[in-house]
């Protein structure tokens, strides 16, 4: 009878133990809690990572970490991984780092281990120069760990700020995200919320009821519709978890891995010389008639490439990614179809934040300008339109990427200046023949310039004289030719020439070099 080898038995026991620990880690809070997650129509943390990343690419880190706390019964039933799954993998072959809260372990509460694992992955993403993606589904800070859970949040927040502008950060909200937990997503570049699953709020409905006696449900307070259309916290809404992950993959198609690289150029069959003659008649001759700027954008950029961001928020502005001859660009535009394209607080923030993202990650900015100005009124002034409008000024002035603007129609006053004008160092400024570049519209200008004289006339005389003065003002100022004559517009172009002109401008600006004054950082008017 052969003797048993003790060393071989020890080795087999070690392998068996590791397999058992791995299996325990994969089960998270156990089969019952996994089933409860599925009953809610939600995936587990591991299932989400598998659905997001390329099949078989996920490499887990710190999967066996345990928390060290013992109060409130935490010395019992410790789970390897402790409610956070973290590691790295690929999306369409591109390297990314990812971490996901596991709701099956103590409701996804964020404790010391969760913070350490998230911080570890963020540090790795910074060192490797790759995007980091967070999948949020948890009940906030783990109360049982006291100050250690707050420490965990702080470590992640600090890294969010250090990563900002260095590597892209994307957050997916696939469940509750409450209290301090909301600030990490808020510091990231893009937030995608899953409809009917994701919620974000500082204080939940029960606390609000106790403090202010206001009765509100979770969806109304902080659901996907609320944050994508009212608060502007969320950039996208996925109708399902699969759609949310598809949005993440779509974003990555347009952006680089880090601030030292550039977005991938994609082969296209769309000719750079394509001229869409419908553009020539798209802008109404009556300046009071409206049109949707998306119709312009979609006819100019590579066919089907426009990917709108913040589509339901501050709709008088349109921002998003697109491609021109395969090259990734950022689109910033006023939309006459909403509030006549006026700039107010939210649209100012929307444009400024997007321009700053593009500048941080080497994405050229194309601006389509058609705005009568900033929204007037006491409510607007009291809500800080000056402060918010200044953010656009700051963003465009600060940006060193290629900046090209196209004035399609109205460009009045300060709004003309802030929307990527030559005065903020735009590299190329074009205007369509329908452009009106002036201090203000003809009617308002005549009121100021001739109002006193018109009051001295009879109503009939005033009406006739006023019509002549308005026509005279329009002839002299409500066109692009005075600006072109001064060199503030590089060229007045036919609308159907826009695509070819933009592509040529991007080509000459590809190796643009700039210098800025030495400073620690500026002080944006937040």
Question: Can you walk through the features of this model?
Answer:
The chain has 526 residues and is of the alpha/beta class. Helix content is 40%, strand content 17%. A hairpin with a 2-residue loop joins strand 11 and strand 12. The strands form three sheets. Strands 10, 11, 12, 13, 14, 15, 16 and 17 form an eight-stranded mixed β-sheet that branches. It is built from 19 helices and 17 strands. It has three domains: 22-254, 2-enoyl-CoA Hydratase, Chain A, domain 1 (Alpha-Beta Complex), CATH 3.90.226; 277-440 and 479-508, 2-enoyl-CoA Hydratase, Chain A, domain 1, CATH 3.90.226; 442-477, no CATH class. The longest helix is centred in the N-terminal third of the chain and has 22 residues, at 6-27.
Task: Detail the topology: elements first, then pairings.
Layout: H1 6-27, H2 31-39, H3 45-52, E1 59-60, E2 84-91, E3 94-101, H4 112-128, E4 132-136, H5 147-163, E5 169-173, E6 176-178, H6 183-187, E7 190-194, E8 199-201, H7 205-212, H8 218-222, H9 224-229, E9 236-238, H10 241-254, H11 293-300, E10 307-309, E11 317-324, E12 327-334, H12 345-360, E13 365-371, H13 378-382, H14 385-398, E14 403-412, H15 413-418, E15 428-431, E16 436-438, H16 442-455, H17 459-476, H18 481-485, E17 491-492, H19 498-508
Parallel strand pairs: 3-4, 4-5, 5-7, 6-8, 7-9, 12-13, 13-14, 14-15, 14-16, 15-17
Antiparallel strand pairs: 1-2, 2-3, 10-11, 11-12
Helix pairs in contact: 4-5, 12-14, 16-17
Percentage of residues in strands: 15-25%
CATH class of the largest domain: Alpha Beta
What is the correct CATH architecture of the largest domain? Alpha-Beta Complex
**Distance linking N and C termini:** 81 Å
Q: If you consult CATH, what is the topology of the largest domain?
A: 2-enoyl-CoA Hydratase, Chain A, domain 1
Morphology call: elongated
Which percent bin holds the helix content? 25-40%
């Amino acid at each position: 009878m052969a003797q048993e080898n003790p060393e071989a038995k020890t080795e087999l026991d070690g392998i068996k133990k590791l397999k058992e620990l791995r299996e325990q880690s994969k089960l998270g809070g156990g089969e019952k809690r996994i089933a409860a997650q599925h009953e809610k129509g939600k995936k587990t943390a591991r299932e989400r990572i598998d659905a997001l990343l390329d099949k078989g690419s996920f490499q887990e880190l710190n999967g066996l970490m345990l928390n060290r706390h013992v109060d409130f019964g935490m010395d019992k039933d410790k789970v390897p991984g402790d409610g956070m799954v973290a590691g790295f993998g690929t999306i369409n072959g591109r390297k990314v780092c990812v971490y996901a809260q596991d709701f099956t372990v103590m409701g996804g509460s964020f404790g010391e281990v969760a913070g350490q694992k998230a911080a570890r992955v963020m540090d790795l993403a910074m060192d490797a120069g790759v995007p980091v993606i967070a999948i949020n589904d948890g009940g906030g800070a783990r109360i049982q760990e006291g100050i250690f859970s707050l420490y965990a949040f702080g470590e992640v927040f600090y890294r969010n700020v250090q990563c900002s502008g260095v590597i892209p950060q994307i957050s997916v909200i696939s469940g509750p995200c409450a209290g301090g937990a909301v600030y990490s997503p808020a510091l990231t570049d893009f937030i995608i919320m899953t409809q009917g699953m994701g919620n974000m709020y500082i204080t939940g409905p029960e606390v609000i009821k106790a403090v202010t006696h206001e009765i509100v449900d979770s969806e109304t307070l902080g659901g996907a519709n609320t944050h994508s259309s009212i608060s502007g916290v969320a950039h996208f809404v996925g109708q399902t978890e699969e759609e949310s992950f598809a949005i993440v993959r779509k974003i990555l198609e347009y952006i680089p891995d880090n601030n030292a690289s550039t977005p991938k150029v994609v082969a296209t069959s769309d000719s750079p010389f394509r001229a869409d003659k419908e553009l020539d008649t798209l802008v109404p001759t009556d300046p009071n008639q409206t049109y949707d700027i998306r119709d312009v954008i979609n006819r100019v950029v590579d066919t089907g490439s426009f990917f709108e961001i913040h589509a339901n928020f501050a709709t008088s502005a349109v921002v998003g990614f697109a491609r021109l001859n395969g090259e990734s660009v950022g689109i910033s535009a006023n939309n006459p179809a909403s509030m006549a394209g006026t700039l107010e607080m939210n649209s100012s923030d929307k444009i400024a934040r997007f321009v700053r993202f593009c500048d941080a990650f080497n994405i050229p900015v194309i601006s389509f300008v058609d705005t009568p100005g900033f929204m007037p009124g006491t409510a607007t002034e009291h809500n800080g339109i000056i402060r918010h409008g200044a953010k656009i000024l700051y963003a465009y002035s600060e940006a060193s990427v290629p900046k090209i603007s196209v004035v399609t129609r109205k460009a009045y006053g300060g709004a003309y200046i802030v929307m990527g004008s030559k005065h903020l160092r735009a590299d190329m400024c074009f205007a369509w023949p329908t452009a009106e570049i002036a201090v203000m519209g003809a009617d308002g200008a005549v009121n100021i310039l001739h109002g006193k004289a018109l009051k001295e006339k009879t109503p009939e005389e005033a009406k006739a004289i006023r019509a002549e003065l308005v026509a005279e003002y329009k002839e002299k100022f409500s066109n692009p030719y005075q600006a072109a004559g001064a060199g503030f517009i590089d060229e007045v172009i036919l609308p159907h020439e826009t695509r070819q002109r933009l592509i040529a401008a991007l080509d000459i600006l590809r190796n643009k070099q700039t210098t800025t004054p030495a400073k620690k950082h500026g002080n944006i008017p937040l």
